[in-house]
């Protein structure tokens, strides 16, 4: 398997023709006779020759590769995003290269890496890194709600779900169940901020008491666990916790268990993203479907238009999220008692 | 952000020099005078020009990209593998492009895609797809135990953890806790097979009764749930279940909850891989550490040697796994009763 890759010269020698003729065949030229065509095709098949994509790309100044930058492989919200991108860009001949900034920390700067490869377009599924701001770049689409600091967001196309509307759906659900004092385990980043602001505003409008943690770092299982421990220690009378995403919500479930809070008996828990983790039977998490697949589709269409040379002002596509009710939410204990449970 | 990418001609015009001189600067030629050098560097910075990697790659017949093929982003075992590969290949100037076969199902064949990009090397973190067999390819390293059907495994370098030894550690742990009748929720694939065979052999050697499911498909949460439901319905006297991997083990935890089996009170559960999912407080899963990061490191070193032109017979690096005891295993109820619990 370590044999040298066959070249166009090997193909020409094997077929008994000139290199120029092989080149014509590869270009699909009609000037090649039937016999020569068959001889070259047979040689290509026998040698396992593959035309250099680099050569074709150089000629066309295109690579047909779209880079996707994310910040955490273990936060599974990106999986449906990538599926949606594939569904939209695959049939257009683009391939995706997914780069996780955290995983690559010990290697070269992943943004530099993407740029060096000359991807035709970039989908940013995280807070835009500094390297993406103020440079001349291929077309960029930002997927998901991001902070506007740094200048990138607002200057490029974006595809998002309406995080504030999603958070309002959570308040509506919890209010309908009878919850009157709810907690929010917050995270940093634009999506985290939008979800917190939306939750706060909706709770106020519904006349529900609300407290939130002040964490502004990454939305991890550990941060969800620590945030919930602190929040529930300070406010044990909270009957429901909304976490900034599913990963943090699983951390909240861990904290609830360690604190002896039965879910949903004495504590309801809600996440955001509707990842495969939320859908696992053991987790069975009530969550907000952030429409990742559709956001990926919109991002793909926006990017395809830019890569095809389309101009015009930056566009913003906003999709309506929906609530997915599973086993981690129910009426609070006080309401249960009144109902005779 | 949709402005045209600057070319080497733009740089030359901006710097007031010839294109050839810009080219010499880009090649780091010592034949360029100080003034010209500064003018070109200033033009490059002002225009945001980036040398075409495609051009450099074409010249060198190298892309410095290593493709990693996996079959499921939601099975998090690959995350540490990629970290290990980055740690080893990043400093050597390679970047990684991760392709998930399942996610790309609607687009072009991902293996074809990798080959078309002319990656310098491929790490296969799944059962080798048909496209990888019998073709002339760049160097390949297979990471993880795979089926030997198809011809690829055995002809290429491999880096694995010793799955049979890992399964034996599980038997040892369960036997020491007092379990005498254990179940295995199996999966398809080489790693699944090796773990099942190792578990079966070790249980027999330890004189412990064992039953296994017959599933040969992907190791998913759903398959783990269904397998455990069936196994525990047929053999309710089983006191511990070892799943083929962490994802399936979380499915087993879901089944245990739905069946009213307290974990670890009336059922112990063990996974394999020691993923971030197993380490989440809410899951807190006893599992086997498959040394993914180190396997990635070994795979990276093997691949780097081949990409540097190294020949010789295929090598196989085998790493010893270790057991990570968390909250899902304990003595079986019968033993607990005798102990006065």
TrEMBL record, chains A, B:
Pfam family, one: Peripla_BP_3
Record bears the keyword Lipid biosynthesis: no
Alphabetic keyword roster: DNA-binding, Transcription, Transcription regulation
InterPro entries the UniProt entry points to: HTH_LacI, LacI/GalR-like_sensor, Lambda_DNA-bd_dom_sf, Peripla_BP_I
Highest taxon in the source lineage: Bacteria
Domain HTH lacI-type: from-to ranges: 6-60
SUPFAM superfamilies: lambda repressor-like DNA-binding domains (SSF47413), Periplasmic binding protein-like I (SSF53822)
Keyword Cytoplasm belongs to the record: no
GO molecular function ontology, one term from the record: DNA binding
Name of protein: LacI family DNA-binding transcriptional regulator
């Amino acid at each position: 398997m370590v044999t040298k890759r066959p070249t166009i010269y090997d193909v020409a020698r094997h077929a008994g023709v000139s290199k120029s003729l092989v080149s014509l065949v590869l270009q699909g030229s009609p000037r090649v006779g039937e016999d020569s065509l068959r001889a070259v095709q047979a040689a290509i098949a026998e040698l396992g020759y593959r035309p250099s994509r680099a050569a074709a790309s150089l000629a066309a100044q295109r690579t047909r590769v779209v880079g996707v930058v994310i910040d955490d492989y273990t936060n599974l919200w990106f999986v449906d995003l990538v599926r949606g991108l594939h569904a939209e860009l695959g049939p257009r001949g683009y391939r995706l290269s997914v780069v996780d900034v955290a995983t690559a920390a010990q290697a070269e700067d992943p943004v530099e890496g993407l740029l060096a490869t000359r991807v035709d377009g970039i989908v940013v599924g995280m807070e835009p890194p500094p390297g993406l701001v103020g440079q001349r770049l291929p077309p960029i689409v930002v997927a998901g709600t991001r902070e506007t600091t740094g200048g990138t967001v607002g200057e490029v196309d974006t595809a998002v779900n309406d995080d504030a509307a999603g958070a309002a759906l959570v308040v509506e659900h919890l209010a309908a169940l009878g919850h009157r004092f709810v907690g929010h385990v917050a995270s940093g980043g634009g999506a985290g901020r939008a979800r917190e602001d939306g939750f706060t505003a909706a709770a106020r409008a519904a006349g529900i008491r609300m407290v939130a943690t002040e964490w502004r770092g990454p939305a991890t299982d550990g941060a969800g666990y620590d945030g919930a421990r602190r929040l529930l220690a300070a406010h044990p009378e909270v009957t429901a916790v909304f976490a900034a995403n599913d990963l943090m919500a699983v951390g909240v479930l861990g904290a609830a268990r360690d604190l002896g809070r039965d879910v949903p008996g004495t504590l309801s828990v809600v996440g955001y993203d509707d990842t495969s983790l939320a859908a696992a039977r053991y987790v069975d998490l009530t969550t907000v479907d952030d429409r990742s697949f559709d956001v990926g589709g919109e991002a793909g269409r926006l990017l395809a238009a830019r890569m095809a040379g389309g101009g015009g002002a930056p566009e913003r596509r906003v999709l309506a999220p929906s609530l997915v009710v599973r086993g981690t939410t129910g009426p609070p204990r006080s309401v249960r008692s009144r109902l005779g449970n």
